[in-house]
Amino acid sequence: MRATILFCILAVLTCGCRSRRQHGDELLMPESVGGSETVQSPDGDDTKTGEPVDPEDEFTAQPLPEPTLRRGLVLSVVVLVGGEKEVDEGSVMVDSEGMLSLPLLGKLNVAGKTLDETARFLKERYDSFFVDPRIALRFCEHEGDATVSPWGFVTVLGKVKTPGPVKIPPTQDLTVSQAIQQAGGFEKAARTTKIRITRRRADGTTMTKTINLHSVGAEGKVADDILLRPGDVVHIPEVVF
User: Fold this and answer.
1) Given pLDDT bands bounded at 50, 70 and 90, which one contains residue 66?
2) Residues 169-207: pLDDT tens digits?
3) What is the DSSP string of 83-123?
4) Contact predicate 89/79, CB 8 Å
5) In the chain, what are the domains?
6) What gap in Å lies between CA 74 and CA 63, rounded to an integer?
């Protein structure tokens, strides 16, 4: 009889331990940790990601990547030897194949290289012709062509006087208000309290932020005048009466 009672007690304890272990495992399942975010995928479908992302983080000021060479960009190339100019090419364009044509060196593939990488690349080749050459490179921009800029451009649409692309300057500090000013300023019917900025992520999805640019001047909310990045689209809607 005593042995039967002990057996029953052990059976109950064993079931309780198993129940607690199963309950604990459920608490550690991934579904119970964190949340998810719905973003717009490139094909227009809603896609859920496992890690929540604060939309505000997508529009905070972040350093822009150093521009790289691509077709249509124009360089000034100077080669100095002993303080004297041996090569002085004031306007050399990267061609459609990403090639740069230079004296003595011919055509060189420079696509995807930064200015510093290109300077080292050219020095290695000019070393065959000169003793300790120094390479000085800088970007030259085409006047009137807003789409060919080393630092990229943004697009301003809607109720502005001259909608279209606006270059990002070398200082890389183009704000929403500055972009609108370069697009000719607001039209009379512009709704300045609902300006929409759309930004594309590296994975192809997009994020949108709506700002009240009127509050920047009227209330001093300068944080709303955010810095723009290459590829951003700024849309100024029309006032609805």
Assistant:
1) confident
2) 888 889 999 999 999 999 999 999 999 999 988 888 889
3) TEEEEEEEEEE--TTSEEEETTTEEEE-TT--HHHHHHHHH
4) no
5) 74-140 (3.30.1950.10), 153-236 (3.10.560.10)
6) 23
